[in-house]
Amino acid sequence: GMVQSKTYAKILYDFTARNATELSVLKDEILEVLEDNKQWWKLKNRSGQAGYVPYNILDLVTPEDLAAMEQSNQKYRDLSPRASGSSSPSHKLPPSYAGDKWGSEMAAHSSSEAKGQLIHHMDEVNDELLKKITNIKIQQPQRNFKVEKTQQVHVPLTFESNAMEVRVWLEANSFSKRTVDHLGILTGAQLFSLNKEELKKVCGEEGARVFSKITVQKSILEKNREKSELEEIMQRRQERIDSST
């Protein structure tokens, strides 16, 4: 209940107030006791601030103790670690120290905070996932298209190709519809016989690109032809050697 004569309490551990009714105190600080109710005592510090502090971090100081302290040449003010800076963080109070109520409050607080962080983390993960999915959706059709294109580029164009094959080859190289329609009526041999100027007349600006593609294709064919001719010569020679032995 209410204290009649002035009583003082010495603080055993640092305590930080977590709301307006509590009072922050430091180890070794001496405060006036206003109320000594159960778990929480109401104290008043030197600055005149009052608030509740857990009773189990207090040690009662009798007026005699106080007088003895003052006599041993320590001024009341100097007992406050705020002035002397002797507060040591190693004396911090473990959260569960001041009764169950405080401990469970702290635990509830930290778990809800942890839950908040977890939810935030999950949101981030979901965002990442969404980004990935939308990126895949955006890239998917293009990617498939590219794959088909590279497969189709291998459509052979030879001097023996018919108009249908020429058309497929032109489409595979993604030339414009105009080019495909104009040149898709020619055979491979006819297409190979056209020069750059003729192609430009038929296809406009794209003619130059058509010409370079045809030139590349022609050189591949020539290489292959030379290779097959060489192989043929080698084979004949081998046959001759075989027959002569």
Q: Biggest β-sheet, characterized?
A: 5 strands, antiparallel
Poorly predicted regions are 80-91, 95-100, 139-153
Task: Give the H and E element order.
Answer: EEEEEHHHHHHHH
CATH superfamily of the domain at 163-243: Transcription Factor, Ets-1
Task: Quickly count the helices.
Answer: 8
Ends apart, CA distance between termini:
128 Å
How does the overall form come out from the CA principal axes? rod-shaped
Number-wise, the strands total 5
Portion in strands: 5-15%
Overall pLDDT confidence: 75
Q: How are the strands of the largest sheet arranged?
A: 4-3-2-1-5
Structural class: alpha+beta
The fold-level CATH name of the domain at 163-243 is DNA polymerase, domain 1
Question: What percent of the residues sit in helical stretches (DSSP H or I)?
Answer: 55-70%
User: What is the name of the CATH class of the domain at 163-243?
Assistant: Mainly Alpha
Keywords: Cytoplasm, Phosphoprotein, SH3 domain
Region (Disordered): 74-110
Family: Belongs to the EPS8 family.
InterPro entries: EPS8-like, Eps8_SH3, SAM/pointed_sf, SAM_3, SH3-like_dom_sf, SH3_domain
Q: Brief description of this entry?
A:
With 245 residues, this protein is an alpha+beta fold.
Write up this protein.
The protein has 245 residues and is an alpha+beta fold. Among the domains are: 7-69, SH3 type barrels; 163-243, Orthogonal Bundle (DNA polymerase, domain 1). Helices cover 56% and strands 13% of the residues. It has helices at residues 63-71, 81-84, 99-153, 163-172, 177-183, 188-193, 196-203, 207-244; strands at 2-11, 30-37, 40-44, 50-54, 58-61. Strands 4-3-2-1-5 form a five-stranded antiparallel β-sheet. The protein starts with a strand and ends with a helix. It holds the Pfam family SAM_3.
